[in-house]
Amino acid sequence: QVQLVESGGGLVQAGGSLRLSCAASGRIFRPSAWAWFRQAPGKEREFAASISWAGSTGYRDSVKGRFTISRDNAKNAVYLQMNLLKPEDTAVYYCAVRPSTRNSPYADEYDYWGQGTQVTVSS
Hints:
Elements: E1 2-7, E2 10-13, E3 18-26, E4 33-39, E5 46-51, E6 57-59, E7 67-72, E8 77-82, E9 91-98, E10 112-113, E11 117-122
Parallel strand pairs: 2-11
Antiparallel strand pairs: 1-3, 3-8, 4-5, 4-9, 5-6, 7-8, 9-10, 9-11
């Protein structure tokens, strides 16, 4: 089994920044591709960003230019730097990982998930 633990969420004013972290432990596999998803109250979970084993990234349109996903293979960790935050970014953010070289924007293609971390952006 793989355990994922997110951290870094919190309350921030619009225009501010947060950096989310997600660390994996347990049966670590390589290669791996990671993603961040988010779920706002009353809405379905949606893709935010992903990164492949080689470092190729993908973003949903609404976060492009503001969010940056990165990874540290030595630490089995992934990060999400969020800048210029907006109230509509408020959600629980989840990291996910799959044993593949390729990243994906589809939640059902990821095998392991973290418990989520709350991000609240006030106006």
